[in-house]
Amino acid sequence: MPEQLSEQALDTLFRDARTYNNWLDKDIEEDTLHRLYDLLKWGPTSANCSPARFLFCRSVEAKARLAGHAMATNAEKIRKAPVTVIVAQHPRFYDWIPELFPHNPDAREWFAPNPDLAETTMFRNATLQGAYLIVAARALGLDCGPMSGFDNAAVDADFFADSEWRSNFLCSIGYGDPESIFPRHPRLDFDQACSVL
């Protein structure tokens, strides 16, 4: 059985982790992005379908293009971050199921003829994988600034015109400037958010 993480590790991943709005001038090497993906990819998805795709905007040019499709406050965050990830999703994720779910390769047929089920499965699981990205980044000592507030259709036309990928949300990653965070906001307590039957 795995051991419980230390309190310090839980603080790093959740309790002390914050959403950053500005970044220290410190680069992220491409090798770190490989490590990040190689960690997040192990998070569970339905039938191991893994519909998320990740475009790491690291160059000044790529970040400027992406910022052009975001609301003003988010555009500035994108430009200043070492990397902003377009968390995307592949609508024909099920074509990889024979490879990813080899004990039941026919599971592709759960989704291919059923576009409503495929759409729901894609969105749910790609969003989950985006959350795994955030937790994995924190585990590697990085900070995150996930965001909506951008034009999905414009991002897709600009970055994914030659593919079937579709954007879900954005997440800046880097080394956060502690001056850029807001005071810690409250969360719902157990009795407000949970029930036990």
UniProtKB/TrEMBL annotation:
The keyword Acetylation does not apply. PANTHER family: MALONIC SEMIALDEHYDE REDUCTASE RUTE-RELATED. Residues 22-175 form the Nitroreductase domain. It is an enzyme of class 1 (oxidoreductase). Its EC number is 1.-.-.-. Keywords: Flavoprotein, FMN, NAD, NADP, Oxidoreductase. Transmembrane segments: none annotated. Gene3D superfamilies: NADH Oxidase. This is Putative NADH dehydrogenase/NAD(P)H nitroreductase EV659_103141. One of its GO terms (molecular function) is oxidoreductase activity. It comes from Rhodothalassium salexigens DSM 2132. Its cofactor is FMN. Belongs to the nitroreductase family. HadB/RutE subfamily.
